[in-house]
Amino acid sequence: MRELDGSNAGGQFVRSALTLSVLENEPVRLENVRGDRPDPGLAHQHLAVVETMAELCDAEVSGAELDAETVEFDPGLSNGNESDSDTASLEGGSYAVDIGTAGSVTLLFDALLPLATVLESPLSITVTGGTDVAWSPPLDYTRQVKLPLLGRYGLVASCEVDRRGFFPNGGGRATLRLAPSTLEPIELVERGTLEGVRLYSTEAAALAEQDVAHRQLEGALERLDLVGERAEDGGDGEDGDADGLEVLERQERTATSPSPGSALVIRVDHGSGIAGFSALGERGKPAERVGEDAADAANRFLEGRAPVDPQMGDQLLVYLALAGGRVRVPRVTDHVEASRELLDAFGLETALERERDDEAVVSLESAPLL
Fold it and tell me: Which residues are involved in binding ATP (predicted)?
């Protein structure tokens, strides 16, 4: 059993460790779970990941309870290829999960996505919880940024939403569908030509009278005009236009939800990939400010060279383990470091080449997991 220490990591360490355990078909013991958080141990959304993984694999688990700081997980999968003892095989099927709180639906999806590479048949999982909540990607980031980007490298996945779940009640419901997939090496080092932006603004029905979704979107567009000023000062744009930042798509949605809330996601399309930026509505925060916050994050991205946003940068490391490749990240965050340490614990040593302005290229060229 491989022993892993989460003293200096949070929930992503737990999710990625369980994902790698299944992919490697290797038992793990997680100690000091979420050890660097004020409230260490498994919270509802982390427990949901443990329980879901266990159900999919029919795994043997100990420590699957709230606040547990030690978890043992043995996937015990059969080998899909008798000639290759290192290849695990996971059956598909249909499952339903209720996180029970406003715990993040999208973070649970993040843990499940890589499992498409060991599926024998399609897998469908419907999850009830928070679809657009703090400290996790909003649902439209998963649907409009992450899945399309991974789809370019062979991941076959889709996400359907029945209703939104905002803090504090959650109650949202979405379904992730995965099909058996084979990934190509990830190559995301150069950004390529900027193509344009897509904006996805959502309000709960309780906020429709305040026109929140429209105001969020307009606030973002107002702030994104600053990109055009940079182009005028020497960028690649012509005649002071927004350097190719044409508005390719704009969506305003009013959604059924047990709680009032709102979310905005900005997607930046460019030659080699996609980047995403988001902000959530808060009580007392003007809707226009929500849009401005997301646009500010997009503007910071446009000033650099990385082809992915900071959140996607660290989330892609597990896919390097599956297929190999290179990713230029905007900065080496604590999540990037924790992910590299976790991969190293599984015998997958990544290389990191630091560059100017905090950017770095993370690569894994040696034999990947699959």
Answer: 110
